[in-house]
Amino acid sequence: MTHDIKACDVLVIGAGPGGGNAALHSARAGLSTIIIEDHEEIGTPVHCGECISDVACDNLDLELPKNVISKRVNGIRVIFPDGTEKKLTEKGYVLEKHLFERWICDEAVSEGAAIHLGHKLNSMEKIYKEGKFSGWRCDGKGDNFPIEAKIVIDASGVAGICSRLLSLNPRPKVIAGMQYEMLEVPTDDYLDFYIWPKYAEKGYVWMIPKCDGRANVGLVTEDKSRTKKGLDEFIANTHFKDLEQVAPPWKIKGNPAFGGTIPISGPHENTYADGLMLVGDAAGFTSPLFEGGSHLALKSAVFAAQIASKSISSGDITSSSLAEYQSLWKNEFPPYSKILSGKSALFDLSDDDMSLMARCFPDEMSNMGPHGKLAVCFKILFLRPSLYARKIIPAMLSFGYSRAKYYGW
Ligand SMILES: Cc1cc2nc3c(=O)[nH]c(=O)nc-3n(C[C@H](O)[C@H](O)[C@H](O)COP(=O)(O)OP(=O)(O)OC[C@H]3O[C@@H](n4cnc5c(N)ncnc54)[C@H](O)[C@@H]3O)c2cc1C
Known about the structure:
The chain is α/β, with parallel strands linked by helices. 32% of the residues lie in helices and 27% in strands. It has eleven helices and 17 strands.
């Protein structure tokens, strides 16, 4: 049997926020663009708490249409093990994330991109013309395969399909997340993040409010075997216990819980190769402390589309031309390993140490400044000098990196 071979400048794998935005910016730059998505529809199942900051929207030039917004929110409230509450006030939105992802893909289509749903990449091989690398021949499940592309942008999320097919990077370490939609949840329009290790070891529990009293109540934890149990126990032991759990509007059948995994070992060693760039979760771009990844996925997609356009017009799509992609994200994204060591130090603290640290923070953590941070350090070390050896300072600073301007959300 012979197939018609589809050809394009850019083939984007996956229609999450990273893939949608890569397709949008590639098409906008005048590149012939195809986006493929494994699922039969975009955005579902949702695997996200669904929040995005104003800073992210400004940084990405996103003017969100009303239908993708569920709620306007004021920022994050962190609740420590003893109940101490501190705020990181910076405004943003809780989205209807599946509608957001559909909107981005619709924008890409209106700029000329073609989208093929129910198409799953499962093989790719290099093409050479006159001995020169000229792109990839991609194949998989779906009527429109095979597809030939000068450049492939891998936005396949935690699946990291191109890394897997080409043995480009090892599988990342992941954290597991799960949530329920609940009704009539009391809120003052903050996202509540509970750092309560007894329910979410090396993770946290959240209440993310949505419109009409709805909320996502969920958690992430490195103890994968306790993801659902930890969440159910948290709900049973808190004011959430009397609230109704429902399936979210997009979930027609099955268990009401929804979630997924998030890469947490940081950016991959190889985020580009000949005719290939990895964006978003597929590149390991997630924020270290609270694991938000949408802002990073959307921004890395902009960089990848920019470099795709530049490389294709220069006639050089080899790795040496695409190396600039790595320089762009490295210059822009926060220092992952530094923040990660702060996160590890934080999770090595006992509940009591963590709560003491929290009591020394000002009520509003978002504008501490260098003097404020120094004052908090002195206060903590005066009260408990032994905490110096337990890396309390990097632990404390990791909260600063959860802010939107550091791609925290
Ligand atoms: C429980 C949970 C809560 C979260 N909460 C938040 C939050 O509140 N805020 C935030 O910023 N981030 C959050 N995140 C992280 C966020 O969801 C991701 O970082 C973000 O979606 C990454 O976008 P992406 O486009 O890189 O990948 P994804 O959104 O994962 O999209 C990848 C797409 O590729 C498709 N795909 C995979 N393999 C193939 C293939 N072989 N062929 C074709 N298509 C393929 C998938 O079906 C999917 O649609 C959360 C994650 C989880 C699991």
